[in-house]
Predict the structure.
Amino acid sequence: MPRNPGVTDEAIIHMYKNGMSYKEMEPIIGLSDRAIWNVLHKHMIPMNREQYSGQSRKNKVNENFFKVWTHE
């Protein structure tokens, strides 16, 4: 699906940084959520997990659990 005329990478980055979700950006930009992600990734924009998935984690996760091996 082609990008809507006049929508630049900078405009996509600006929308993302202002808290707009991918679902809100899709009709404005004319790209899928994956294509929007590719633009942000190309410009090395840090991803906000909650914003990307549309919801926060349901369960707490110890992200560092496997960094140190124990008999646990």
